[in-house]
Specification:
The chain is an alpha+beta fold and about 110 residues long. Helix content is about 55%, strand content about 15%.
Length: about 110
């Protein structure tokens, strides 16, 4: 009989939280006390790239949450790049509609 996995919901959440803010998977695992190779094996077991061990539901869910966390981090980084291209985050926005129908929007951006 196989031994129980070390992957608990608490460990998974800790790893996912770190990955969601840009920490690589191996480093995120070390942050919660899991060997980096173990976390990479868990990830590989879902993606089908592990040479000898099969996929199971717990590893499939782990890999899926890691993929979502990476996508969320990427979206945040792209939003920050876009904000930087505009001069920073909008901290004030006012839209004025004049009697003649003209609409004017004034925006102030934060300093980077």
């Amino acid at each position: 009989m196989a031994r129980p996995t070390k992957l608990t919901p608490a460990l998974q959440q800790g790893i996912v939280n770190a990955v969601a803010v840009g920490v690589p998977l191996a480093a995120a695992a070390r942050l919660v006390g899991v060997d980096a190779n173990t976390a990479l094996e868990w990830y590989q077991r879902d993606t089908g790239t592990h040479p000898t061990r099969p996929t199971t539901k717990i590893y499939a869910e782990f890999a899926e949450t890691i993929k979502r966390a990476k996508a969320a981090d990427e979206a945040c980084r792209l939003a920050r790049i876009e904000q930087a291209g505009k001069g920073g985050a909008v901290v004030f926005e006012r839209t004025t509609t004049f009697p003649n129908g003209k609409v004017q929007t004034d925006c102030k951006y934060s300093e980077l």
